[in-house]
Amino acid sequence: MKVTDHINRAGKTLFTFEILPPLKGETIDSIHRIIDPLMEFKPAFIDVTYHREEIVYKSRPGGLLERWKVRKRPGTVGISASIKYKYGVDVVPHIICGGFSREETENGLIDLNFLDIHNLLVIRGDNLKSDKYFIPDPNGHAFAIDLVKQIMDMNRGNYLDEELEITTPTHFSVGVAGYPEKHFEAPNLLTDLEYLRQKVEAGADYIVTQMFFDNGKYFDFVKACRDAGIKVPIIPGLKPIATKAQLTTLPTTFHIDIPDDLVKAVMKCRDNAEVRKAGVEWCIEQSRELITFGVPIIHYFTMGKSDNIRQIAREVF
After folding, report:
1. Helix, strand, coil proportions of the chain in percent (round to 5)?
2. N or C: which end of the chain has fewer CB within 10 A?
3. How do residues 159-200 score in pLDDT, each as one tens digit?
4. Domain range annotation of the chain
5. How far apart, in whole angstroms, are the C-alpha atoms of residue 256 and residue 259?
6. Taking 70 as the threshold, does the pLDDT of residue 54 lie above it?
7. Is the pTM of this model over 0.90?
8. Structurally, what CATH architecture does the domain formed by 3-316 represent?
9. Which residues are catalytic?
10. How far apart are the C-alpha atoms of 315 and 317, rounded to whole Å?
11. For position 177, what pLDDT does the model report?
């Protein structure tokens, strides 16, 4: 079932969450340990993130350094299929621009289509840590909108090889990312909204937001989207704060603000166990207010842990 079908049929706010593939060398059991405690809340779907390659340098005889490309969290397609058939729940693998050519993207989409996986979250992805700016594959996409357009072409039966004699249209439903506090590379929020509007116009069915800790920013973002002519569902993404260090790392990594009241509550905590409790309490209140507002889904970022998400879901769903 497509994400939009879940929304249209529910009549209430749905529970969903996102997981990270395990590090290379680990087993899928680590994924099961995250998912199992959350299945009692009947998630409408589960997102599986995709992580691009990283560059590492290895020492070689003579003092030379050899440049290697490695994928530290491979397996998004396999994990998505495993979840779908083990738990009987819809999955939403992330599809990224970075590190992939258009042909590699097409082949990955064909694999997902074979697996009867038709929901996708399309994002540009991050630049390599060694690069100051995002650099696309020479034969890939520089922007998420171009990836959306390629997927929509496949939905019309148009593949990269124009000489194919038999081309069956795919049936992908695409979500894209939205930024209540604007994408850090956009010059301003209005420009960012215009980019988002173009992605929706290109074929995106819904939006999932970056994490935020102030619901007011989400409410303002939804209004701004509607004023800009963006009418698709806008799904809020939440993450409970879990450590004092995240007061620094989250704003730095995700370019978001943390409200003064939450900062003060975290700073009063004696250890991270207390921080985790404060983060859960804050997220519960956020969730309740969002449900009152009438959001279609609340999407939680697990970041490899599910115990705090379970505590929140018990109080909210």
Report:
1. 45, 20, 40
2. N
3. 999 889 889 999 999 999 999 999 989 999 999 999 999 999
4. 3-316
5. 10
6. no
7. yes
8. Alpha-Beta Barrel (3.20)
9. 18
10. 6
11. 97
